[in-house]
Amino acid sequence: MDFKLTEEHLMIQQAARDFAQTELLPGVIERDETQTFPTEQIKKMGELGFLGMMVDPKYGGSGLDTISYVLAMEEISKIDASASVVMSVNNSLVCWGLQTFGTEEQKQKYLTRLATGEIIGAFCLSEPEAGSDATSQKTTAIDKGDHYLLNGTKNWITNGNTADVYLVIAQTDVEKKHKGINALIIEKGMPGFEIGAKEQKLGIRGSDTHSLMFTDVKVPKENRIGEDGFGFKFAMKTLSGGRIGIASQALGIASGAYELALKYSKERKAFGTEICNHQAIAFKLADMAVSIEAARHLCIKAAWDKDNHNNYDISGAMAKLYASQVAMDTTIEAVQIHGGNGYVKEYHVERLMRDAKITQIYEGTSEIQKIVISRSIISQ
Ligand code: CAA
Ligand code: FAD
Known about the structure:
Keywords: FAD, Flavoprotein, Oxidoreductase. Belongs to the acyl-CoA dehydrogenase family. The chain is of the alpha+beta class. The protein has eleven helices and nine strands. Flavin-adenine dinucleotide binds next to strand 1, strand 3 and helix 11.
């Protein structure tokens, strides 16, 4: 057992840290306030290889391991969780899904451009009546011989307007339930595909969340991912890795808030001393440090499982469940440590607190992670 990061890991961590400080920090408050997508920053992230980190270099990716991805996600999320959700969806849902289950033609046509950030992807599973209950798909993809006819609505889709390529989950055969679901590649601009209004959100306000409407969209058969009926398994397998990305996002939000709170507590004076010298504040910092370290271990362990071809469904779910709770607890306490300044935008912690909440909701709510974990431990 070796807890030491490699030279390469440390380099990637530093590169992500530098990028976040120099490119993401300027303007992050304004982007949050005005719900502005970080277009230029995402372009640069693509150029630096952060959008296709685990993709084979022969398809334009960086060819790195999942641990590198966790380290980079933490650093980017410390500063801008809106940028890191774009990174997470593109890397672990879209690129990983296509690299692992796509045909060679699909990889050449889409993955090569997604991995470099030339285009951005979206992953479309949730619907108005199928969020946690993801097998209850109402969007239909009816088999018409050489194509599918796609009809329905997807909700809350990250990169909804920014994406060019959408992986859409839809029901082909209702009788077969989840075994009759397919995953299809949809391109922006296909006739019958419309993008709904942008959601007005509590947090990750720089990210671009929309509903999508499909009316008789003709999708060529070659755009199906995997065998007929593989769509639900595709979604579940892809989300198992996605949850490691969101766990790392939560970790980054927590460690970003902790670093700010620690610094502030050493500068701010009350009752003749720096507030970190008051035990009530010092103990909060201790609790934060311990839980962040534990969350980091869970994230790295899940990534290590993935890199070593172990099952990571459960370690990923545990990492997400725990790290998202740590993000919530830590950001609330970081605001508290900042006192009144914590409640105003320029100190960043109120944004981190608002951003933390989503990590308990998307890519499977905390209750869903508990279902996944408890089913596994009970069945052993
Ligand atoms: N890998 C492979 N297959 C899996 C799997 C996994 N991790 N998890 C489940 N399956 C398979 C099961 O084996 C089963 O197939 P078989 O019948 O062939 O064995 C099938 O899927 C159905 O599984 P269940 O019987 O367990 O289904 P269920 O309805 O009881 O529960 C669930 C499934 C785990 C609750 C699932 O619906 C779920 O994960 N819900 C949450 C949805 C979610 O995470 N949405 C995220 C949307 S993307 C997003 O949010 C992105 C973003 O914000 C940035
Ligand atoms: P519901 O399923 O209606 O759940 C409501 C509450 O009931 C939750 O607390 C839930 O945990 C609980 N609950 C439900 N079932 C159970 C149960 N069996 N046991 C115990 N408790 C239960 N989806 C995508 O497909 N792609 C995206 O890119 C995407 N991005 C998103 C971005 C944002 C900003 C948001 C807000 C959502 C996004 N989503 C995306 C959707 C997200 O994955 C869903 O919101 C999430 O899975 C929960 O589904 P729901 O909102 O329908 O809640």
